[in-house]
Design brief:
Length: about 150
Amino acid sequence: MKKLTNYQRATQYLVKIFNAINEEYFNNELDIPTITIQSTTRAYGHVSTQKIWHNNEVSTYELNLSADYMNRPIENVVATLIHEGCHLYAMTKGIKDTSNRGVYHNKRFKMLAEERGLQIEKHNKYGWTITSPTEETLDFCISRGF
């Protein structure tokens, strides 16, 4: 089996996973973001609120996964990608899922994430943001070979 030994290979694999998530949980309604891996110790991931990557006539959102947490089990990384996919979905559908400049995750976010098989718990400061994979997430990972 090939190893994810470089940045390009790792991001290509994450795009593959995101495409599967888009198909399974979002009916392919999400635009594919530009996936980056950078150190952000305060969060497992985040998405930009605007399309900040531009290539000719194509613009995309950025979805960053924290390099500091990439060594977690794959089901946790997949849960983070689904979490961020929920934010992208909310933006495209005009659903206000956060407040306080995107920091506080409200009940709309909780609903979107739980509809997609995530376990969501409340953090005192950040709202409904603590994300865990469920048996559904594990089954998805196994069925897709992740």
